[in-house]
Amino acid sequence: MNTEASANPLRREAEYFFGAIRFFTRLPVPAWVGHSSDALDRSTRYFPAVGLLVGAIAALVFGLVSLFLPKTLAVLASMATTLYITGAFHEDGWSDMVDGFGGGWEKSQVLTIMKDSRIGSFGAVALVILLLSKFCALIELDLVMIPVALVAGHTLSRFCATTLLRTLDYVRDEGKAKPLATRISWGELALAGATTLLALLLLPPQQAILGCVFAAVATLWLARMFERRIGGYTGDCLGATQQLAEVAFYCGLLCKYS
Predict the structure, then answer these.
(1) Which of 37, 43, 51, 74 could bridge to 66 as Cys pair (CB 3.0-4.6 Å)?
(2) pLDDT (tens digit per residue) in 215-230
(3) DSSP designation for 178
(4) Which helix (H) or strand (E) holds 111?
(5) How many separate domains does the chain show?
């Protein structure tokens, strides 16, 4: 960790925040931000903040494109933007997780399949369904609701993934989420939750609650499956949780209109 940053609490927290941005996105960060496993481990509290940033960029793109093109194309542009700035990091985790849990029976088989960089039939089909579900859910929302839904959805879904860092164990000896394997503290989880709450305040209370319920159910279902099948989580499991929780959140928002 940068020694100057460690001596200054505000600068240290900024380093944790930018470290999370660098790990989960392609966005540039200041040159003074150092590299260390400890800093990345401490950055877990800012995962929802990264989602807030990604969601805000997606909302901005949607707003700009919707000035000239139909809502469907504006939603597609916002989704393409998030895929680009995150490098499809979480989508890759989703497809790998489905491949592993769909094609493997024993824990070792599941972990081996998930580690394979090639995408299988289970993962390919699941990825198409996931992206189509996200697109269909978003275009069903009112035009003015979509930007705030994007901000809240990206933020909450990352908080859902963060909860696994508190409740489950990391099951690999190495991997892309190994630096995050230390369990997040309750204080860090509370900070992540506070960031999420700020994003949810943008929505009407009833819709926010329904969205949270749907996302929570999706997260609990996945967490139970991860614990039962492999005894914990991997980096792919975190990405899969973020993706399914995001889609579930958008579906929850639509309950008002059903």
Answers:
(1) 74
(2) 999 999 999 999 999 9
(3) G
(4) helix 107-115
(5) 1
Q: Which residues, other chains included, contact 144 with Cβ-Cβ below 8 Å and sequence gap of 6+?
A: none
**Tokens of residue 127, six digits:** 């990825």
Give me the residue label for tokens 């960029």: 57
Sign of the torsion angle spanned by Cα atoms 151, 154, 157, 158 = negative
pLDDT per residue as tens digits for the range 193-216: 999 999 999 999 999 999 999 999
Hey, CA dihedral for 186, 188, 191, 196, is it positive or negative?
A: negative
Question: How many residues are present in the chain?
Answer: 258
> For the chain, how far is it from start to end, CA to CA, in angstroms?
51
Q: Could you tell me the sign of the dihedral formed by the alpha carbons of 135, 137, 142, 144, in that order?
A: negative
Let me know if 114 is exposed, middle or buried by CB neighbors in 10 A (0-12, 13-18, 19+): buried
What is the distance between the alpha carbons of residues 206 and 64, in angstroms, rounded to a whole number?
28
Cβ atoms within 10 Å, residue 183: 17
Q: How big is the CA angle at 25 (ends 21 and 28), to the nearest 5 degrees?
A: 65
**Residue range of the domain that includes 241:** 3-257
- Is the Cα dihedral 186, 241, 246, 46 positive or negative? positive
Which of 43, 11, 2 is closest to 177 using CA atoms? 43
Helix axes 47-66, 9-24, angle to 10 degrees: 60
Q: How far apart are CA 5 and CA 47, in angstroms?
A: 20
